Amino acid sequence: MRDSDVLENNPRVSRSALEAIHGQVFGWALSRCNYEQQLAEDLVQQAYVELLTGKAQFTGGSSLKTFVFAVVQNLARSRFRRRATHLRLVHRAAPVDDVSHLEEPQEHSALWRAVQELPGRQRDIIELVFCRDLTVEEAAQIMGVTTGTGRVHYDRAKKALRKKLENE
Amino acid sequence: MNNEQLARQLQQDTATFERDRVPAFATVFSAAEMRVANARRRRYAGGLVAAAAVIAIVASLGPATEPDWQYVDPVLFASTTSWEAPSDVLLPQHSVDLFEDIPVLIEGTKIDGGALL
């Protein structure tokens, strides 16, 4: 880690370390915003602002990736909650064809569709563990639940997913 | 499908979906840096304005200063033939003699037909 690379108000975070996980962080932000590109970009930018100002202080208690994912999750919960609710309502009210910006990756596979149909927490833990290469403990930390609760969501999600795939 | 297969399939789907959607790190990060810098600038400007306002309020609430009175001897004042107003500095010629151009109002004391000549 070069000295100039380190964030002024967050000495344990470097630009290069953030760049290395940027794609994963953006993907996580996308799924937090119903796959709306612009909203996800705002969300990630806000997460970087929190890191730059030191409002979100990384102490090294977890991996940087887990920490930044948790920052994105918390921001999405607070600042973007109203917007996300609005999007969900629009998504429910209007036919999918009419809402071009809600572009979920549904075209890809039955598996992806099955994941998207899972309840929120189960979907999140499957995404974090399977798609983002995190452990159940790390995923639980990001979601703000205990490891035990995380494991319950994870087991239920796997069962539900297998059942859905068997029925198709 | 076991866990590994599930994970691999999902990772493939995610990667395919996100491939062209992730903006460059430099773009997002420099935008964030700009926002932080702008916020800092606004905060300093706000501080300066607040400080100026406080100074103005304090100055206006401060004790009124007594005018700088000067004693003028009435005898001396009555005998003076010239006077210089504070605003005379604006005139091309200062301290004009009061009696320099006194118009002659009465030419004489002789009366002609009931009127002064």
Characterise this structure.
The complex is a heterodimer of chains A (168) and B (117). By secondary structure, chain A is mostly helical. Chain A has two domains: 1-103, no CATH class; 106-168, Orthogonal Bundle (Arc Repressor Mutant, subunit A). Helices cover 66% and strands 4% of the residues of chain A. In chain A, strand 1 and strand 2 form a beta hairpin. In chain A, helix 5 (110-116) crosses helix 8 (147-167) and helix 7 (136-143) packs across helix 8. Mean pLDDT of chain A is 85; it is low at 96-102. Chain B is mainly α. Helices cover 50% and strands 3% of the residues of chain B. Chain B has three helices and two strands. A two-stranded antiparallel ribbon of chain B has the order 1-2. In chain B, strand 1 and strand 2 (115-116) form a beta hairpin. The longest helix of chain B is centred in the middle third of the chain and has 37 residues, at 25-61. Chain A binds chain B through residues 15, 18-19, 22-23, 26-27, 30, 37, 41, 44-46, 48-49, 52-53, 105, 108-109, 111-112, 115, 126-127, 129-131, 133, 158, 161-162, 165, and chain B through 1, 3, 6-7, 9-11, 13-14, 16-18, 21-23, 25, 28-29, 31-33, 35-36, 39.
Topology:
The complex is a heterodimer of chains A (168) and B (117).
Chain A: E1 6-7, E2 10-14, H1 15-32, H2 37-53, H3 64-78, H4 81-93, H5 110-116, H6 120-131, H7 136-143, H8 147-167
Antiparallel strand pairs in A: 1-2
Helix pairs in contact in A: 1-2, 1-3, 2-3, 3-7, 5-8, 6-7, 6-8, 7-8
Chain B: H1 3-18, H2 25-61, H3 74-79, E1 111-112, E2 115-116
Antiparallel strand pairs in B: 1-2
Give a nutshell description of this structure:
Chain A is mainly α and 168 residues long. Chain A contains eight helices and two strands.
